[in-house]
Amino acid sequence: MLQQKAPSRTLQLLIGGAILGILAFLLVYGFTPLDITNDTFCRGGYMEKDIQQHYAGWLFYRQNAQGFPLCVTQFINAPSGVSIAYTDSIPLVAALCRPLANWLGGTFQYFGWFTLVCFALQGAFGATLCGLFTSNSVVLPLLGDLLFVSSPILYERAFRHTSLGAQWLILAALYFYFRARRQGRFASKGLFFLNILAIGIHPYFVPMTYAITFALLLEHVVSTHRWKGPALYLTADLVCTLLLGWLLGLFYGTATSGGQALYGYFSMNLNALWNPMGVNGTIYSRVLPAQNQLNGNYDAFAYLGLGVLIAVPLLLIGNFRRFLCFLRKHWALLAVCVILTLFAISHVVTANGVTLFTFPLPASLIQLFSVFRSGGRLFWPVYYLLLLFAFVGTVRLPRPIVMVSLLALVQIWDVSPGMVQRHQDMVSATQSPAFPSGLESDFWQSAQSYDHLESVQGIQDDALHLALFAADNGMTTNDPFAARYDAAALESERAVVLQELASGNLRDDTLYLFEEEGAFLQSVEPVRNSAWCGKVSSSDGTSNWYVIAPGLQGCSFDNLCTPYDENYPLRFAEYTDALWNRGVLDSTKQTVCFADSPFARSKLEGATYICDDGQMYRITKLDDSDPGWLMVTLDIEDATVLWDQELTTK
Questions:
Q1: Which residues of 78-89 are buried (b: 16+ CB within 10 A; e: fewer)?
Q2: More confident: 54 or 280
Q3: What distance in Å separates the CA atoms of residue 438 and residue 560, rounded to the nearest whole number?
Q4: Cis peptide before 79 (omega within 30 of 0)
Q5: CA angle, corner 312, sides to 290 and 22, nearest 5?
Q6: Which of 110, 93, 107, 100 is nearest to 34 (CA)?
Q7: CA dihedral of 590, 591, 597, 601, whole degrees rounded to 10
Q8: Which pTM was predicted?
Q9: CA-derived radius of gyration, the chain
Q10: 445 burial class (0-12, 13-18, 19+ CB within 10 angstroms)?
Q11: Burial class (CB in 10 A: 0-12, 13-18, 19+), 634
Q12: What pLDDT does residue 646 have?
């Protein structure tokens, strides 16, 4: 009788680690996100509203006629279109799922299954990475894998941005790096494939996996004095990576020009490793308190966990010579880790609630670095190397199973409050909307008949619910709803629309929206008789849209709508700078400003009083010398009492 060959240790670790990752996912997420026909958690948002952007991008792409490059949709940022890579909709997965989704019909969301696969692969590569530093044992690597499947940054990022839950790419890159180093080779097929795959999931992973790849190649070149093979390998890898990015539309048009120069804003605070504060006040520690942060430090969350924080310094002291030997051997990996860390900290160096200093950088360099403006994320390879160091050092202690078990136990015990909170966030999102929509007026039911939504000016309130509204109703929109877009092209397109409105021309199939009342009032007068025009609000008053709706003139809507007519109220301009506070001049509190428009002029020119709820305040001066503004001086002690009030004139 033939004896079956036992599965290899690597396969056992892959399977065992994947099971640990799946269990971690189910404990936190549950089974609901695995129902592809249930998109409640995508629409409600389970921690931040960003998941609505990711899901809306998928809906727009699914409805758009398939074109080339893949993953470009003209339904948003119309008419130019944009790749859904910039809505963080995981373009490679979207392209693969689209045929199946269209064949099945109905609701189809892949975000739950994608996250499950990420957790499984996080566990699989965490276990095999630990397995490289132990001999024979399967138990020790699986115990060490608990550090990786309970990683606080995994939960923080997977909940905030689904695509950034693919942190297994970093673990896999480290695994292939160490394995190739031991085998004395540079041509790692695994790294080659990971670098290409990364751009199809999220571009932020590309510099991380390539940094590890570059370290491998550089160490090989220096040790062998042969550079042609590594150069050819790197060139081929870059070409294939760029090719996939092009196929998925990442280089479509000039989509990358819409990003602001925000490098340094989302930097890593120097307290990040021991600061357990996540987004929405979630604390990932039972012991350590939340630390202060500045600006966008929250996006560089990198809490190590109490077990690792205790282990790393102790192991470093006890194994300092061995650690130095490791660094000398892997000097290029050390170099890229230093570079990634410095990039994450950025030129704006923060510690707790203080900016220590800002190192001056040329504007051109800041603009270049802002391609990866959330630079704090690039610390993740260093973060996972610190987790690996804690495991490897603990394994070499006496009674390693006991010591690694203790390390994992302390780590999970410490970070478990954050995991519990994330579970509660998911349960809440699958039962009721975490972020209720402001599109509550019955006006929006009538607005479903339009084919195009035109954001004429500004970023609309409740923009992501508005994106879902447009996607659900098969509408195109000029609003990009994306992290990157061609800002110049968008403004040019908006200028054309403003010229049409000024000429009294309306597109019958288009709903026009304005962010600011002043811009709305400057455009509405020539078209007021051909459309319903006015203000639409949410029930709590936090969201407002200024609307021109062709064909709906004469219609009446609920009390969330204020029609533009002779009774339309006058309001201060929401203008604030060093001298003005929400439309009131700070020095006197008697001069107020309004956005100049035919409406405002008709109300103010010739008026004697501004009235509010029965009170009348005499106008002593009207000044229109500053283009775009009407400044009115009142006989009033403090005009701030009129902020946000609906005013009339007499």
A1: bebbbbbbbbbb
A2: 54
A3: 11
A4: yes
A5: 75
A6: 110
A7: 70
A8: 0.91
A9: 29
A10: exposed
A11: buried
A12: 87
Phi, then psi, of 647 in degrees rounded to 5: -105, 155
Chain position carrying tokens 């979630």? 282
Q: Among all chains, which residue has been given the structure tokens 């996250």? A: 115
Q: What is the sign, positive or negative, of the torsion defined by CA atoms of 374, 379, 383, 384? A: positive
Question: Contact, 160 vs 58, CB < 8 A?
Answer: no
Residue 484: DSSP 8-state: S
pLDDT, residue 2, reads 42
CA distance 132 to 129: 5
pLDDT single digits (tens) 281-309: 889 999 999 999 999 999 999 999 999 99
Tell me which residue of 27, 24, 107, 29 sits closest to 428, measured CA to CA.
Answer: 29
Question: Is pLDDT at 256 greater than 90 in this prediction?
Answer: no
pLDDT tens digits, one per residue of 82-141: 899 999 999 999 999 999 999 999 999 999 999 999 999 999 999 999 999 998 889 999
In sequence order, the 6+-apart residues with CB closer than 8 A to the CB of 226 are 220
Distance CA 617, CA 596 (A): 20
Please name the helix (run of DSSP H) or strand (run of DSSP E) that holds residue 549, with its range, or none.
Answer: strand 544-550
Closest to 237 in 3D by CA, of 181, 200, 175, 194: 194
pLDDT at residue number 5: 54
Q: SS3 sequence, 392-444?
A: HHHHCCCCHHHHHHHHHHHHHHHHHHHHHHHHHHHHHHHHCCCCCCCCCCCHH
Token pair belonging to 524: 């509405």
554-558 long-range contacts, Cβ below 8 Å, gap at least 24? Answer: 555/446, 557/441, 557/442, 557/443, 557/446, 557/532, 558/441, 558/442, 558/443
Distance, first Cα to last Cα, the chain: 104
**Phi, psi of 636, rounded to the nearest 5 degrees:** -150, 145
Q: Which helix (H) or strand (E) holds 386?
A: helix 380-395
Residue 254 confidence (pLDDT) above 80? no
Q: Which two tokens stand for residue 400?
A: 């390693």
The CA-atom distances, in angstroms, between 362 and each of 257, 258, 340 are 18, 20, 19
Q: What is the pLDDT of residues 178-235, one digit of tens each?
A: 999 999 899 999 999 999 999 999 999 999 999 999 999 999 999 998 999 999 999 9
Residue 79, amino acid: P
pLDDT of residue 1: 37
Q: Evaluate whether 212 touches 177 at the Cβ level (below 8 Å).
A: yes
CB 11 within 8 A of CB 131: no
Chain-wide mean pLDDT for the chain? 91
Contacts of 38 (CB under 8 A, 6+ apart): 32, 107, 109, 430
Tokens of 142: 């699986």
Residue type, position 93, single letter: V
- Residue 554 has a pLDDT of 87
What is residue 260's predicted lDDT score, i.e. its pLDDT?
A: 63
Strand partners, 622: 632
**Closest of 542, 570, 532, 540 to residue 444, by C-alpha:** 532
List of residues 6+ apart from 119 with CB closer than 8 A: 21, 22, 24, 25, 149, 154, 158, 165
Choose among 207, 236, 210, 198: nearest CA to 91.
198
DSSP for 113-144 reads HHHHHHHHHHHHHHHHHHHTTSSS-SHHHHHH
Q: What residues have CB less than 8 Å from 180, skipping those under 6 apart?
A: 186, 187, 188, 191, 216
Signed CA dihedral, 106, 107, 113, 114: sign only: positive
